[in-house]
Design a protein that fits this description.
36% helix, 10 strands, 4 domains, two-stranded antiparallel ribbon, alpha+beta, MutS, DNA mismatch repair protein, domain I
C-alpha cells in the first residue's frame, strides 16, 4: 500500500513484495530502491473493510465461529465442525478454500491463541501450519521477538540485554521480567511461553443496514455533505429491518474523486455512540465533525449501521437495582467491546498476593460474559 497522507512509509504488502525484500513500515525511498518494480496501490479503507467483511462472512457460511481481531486477522474455532469435514486439517482446508486464493491467506492452528497467531505469521501463503500442544514450546523458541505485541522500545531493551528470541525470553524468571519491564513485559513473557487458553468469541451477526448517495459531480462543500449525511441518517433509520432497535455503532465512508467503483481512493470512519440511540439528530450531530476530515472531494457518501442493540436493549444505566442489573451490565460490556475491541474488558485475578513486586500480584484476565 502507498503511504497514507502525511506519511513516508509503505503500508501492508503482498507475498510478491515480501519476496523482493520489501517490509511493512519501510520508508518509501528504501522500498523503491530495494524493489524498483514496486507498484504502489492507493489506500482504500472502505474497500478493504468491505473485502474483509466478505471474507469473515465466507468463513461463517462454512460453519466456523469467527472472531475478527483486526482487518486481516481472525480467530476461528474448528472443534464444532471437525466431524463435519473429517478432521482438523480438512476443516482448515475448507477455511482456506472459503477465503480464496487471491488473498495469500495463511492459517496457523494451535490450542492457544498466541501460538496459532505465531504459526500463521511464519506460514507461507496458502500453507496450513498446525502446532500440537506438546510442540508449542519448541515451536515458539526460535521465533523473533517482533511477534510479541510490545512497544518497540521494550523490544529494543530486551535485544540490548541479549534476548532476541521467544525461547530466550521464556527462559527468564517471570518476576525478573515484570520488575524490569512492568505488566507489558510480564504479559510478553507469558505469551512467549505459549500464552493462556482463551476461547474464541464468535461475533454477533452484523446489522448490514447500508445507505449510499452518489453525487453527479464531486462535492467538497461541507454544508452540502452535512445535508447529504442528514438524508442518509433519516433513510437508514426508517428501514423496516431496524424496527425498534437502537444504533450502537455506525460507520461513514466515502468514495473520493479520482477513484473508481472497483477500487481507488476512499475514506472511512467508524463511531461507537456513547449511548445507543435511534434519534436521527443525535446520530447526525455525532457524525458531522467527521466530514471535516475528508481529504478530497466526494463522489459517493455511504452510511452503515454496523451494530444494533436488541429489540429492548437500550442502555440507560450501567448498574440498576433488581433483576435488570446483570442484563444492563452485559449490555454495557458489549458497548465497551464494540468501541475498543475484544479483550478490552478484563477482570483482576490475584495470583501471587504475597509477592513484594506489585506487577506480579495480579493478572488481567479477559471477561467471557
Amino acid at each position: 500500500m502507498a503511504p497514507e497522507r502525511g506519511a513516508d512509509t509503505v503500508g501492508s504488502i503482498n507475498a510478491a513484495a515480501e519476496l523482493a525484500g520489501v517490509r511493512p513500515g519501510m520508508r518509501l525511498g528504501e522500498a523503491l530502491a530495494t524493489c524498483p518494480g514496486l507498484v504502489l496501490v492507493e489506500p482504500d479503507p472502505a474497500g478493504a473493510e468491505q473485502a474483509w467483511e466478505e471474507i469473515v462472512c465466507a468463513l461463517e457460511d462454512a460453519g466456523f465461529s469467527v472472531e475478527s481481531a483486526s482487518a486481516g486477522v481472525a480467530y476461528f474455532e474448528t472443534r464444532g465442525v471437525e466431524r463435519l469435514y473429517g478432521g482438523l486439517e480438512p476443516a482448515l482446508q475448507r477455511a482456506l478454500g472459503a477465503v480464496g486464493s487471491v488473498w495469500d491467506a495463511r492459517i496457523g492452528a494451535a490450542g492457544r491463541r498466541f501460538a496459532a497467531l505465531a504459526a500463521a505469521s511464519v506460514a507461507r501463503p496458502g500453507q496450513l501450519l498446525v502446532v500440537r500442544d506438546d510442540e508449542v514450546g519448541s515451536f515458539l523458541a526460535p521465533l523473533p521477538l517482533n511477534l510479541l505485541p510490545i512497544e518497540r522500545q521494550r523490544r529494543h531493551e530486551l535485544e540490548a540485554l541479549g534476548v532476541r528470541k521467544l525461547g530466550q525470553l521464556a527462559g527468564l524468571p517471570g518476576g525478573a521480567v515484570a520488575e524490569r519491564l512492568g505488566p507489558d513485559g510480564r504479559r510478553a513473557w507469558s505469551l512467549a511461553r505459549g500464552g493462556t487458553n482463551a476461547r474464541v468469541r464468535g461475533r454477533r451477526p452484523p446489522a448490514e443496514l447500508v445507505e449510499s448517495l452518489e453525487f453527479p459531480e464531486a462535492i467538497g462543500n461541507e454544508l452540502t455533505l452535512r445535508r447529504a449525511l442528514g438524508a442518509l441518517v433519516d433513510t437508514a433509520l426508517a428501514r423496516p429491518e431496524r424496527r425498534d432497535r437502537f444504533v450502537r455503532k455506525v460507520a461513514l465512508s466515502a468514495r473520493l474523486v479520482g477513484s473508481s467503483a472497483s477500487g481507488g481512493g476512499s475514506w472511512r470512519r467508524a463511531l461507537t455512540l456513547r449511548e445507543p440511540s435511534a434519534d436521527a439528530d443525535r446520530i447526525r450531530i455525532a457524525l458531522a465533525p467527521k466530514l471535516a476530515e475528508l481529504p478530497a472531494p466526494v463522489v459517493e457518501l455511504r452510511l452503515e449501521l454496523v451494530e444494533l442493540t436488541e429489540a429492548a436493549g437500550r442502555q440507560l444505566e450501567l448498574l440498576a437495582a433488581g433483576a435488570e442489573d446483570r442484563t444492563r451490565l452485559r449490555e454495557g460490556l458489549r458497548q465497551v467491546r464494540a468501541s475498543t475491541g475484544s479483550g478490552s474488558v478484563c477482570t483482576v485475578v490475584e495470583v501471587a498476593p504475597w509477592s513484594r513486586i506489585p506487577e506480579t500480584r495480579a493478572l488481567f484476565v479477559p471477561r467471557d460474559d
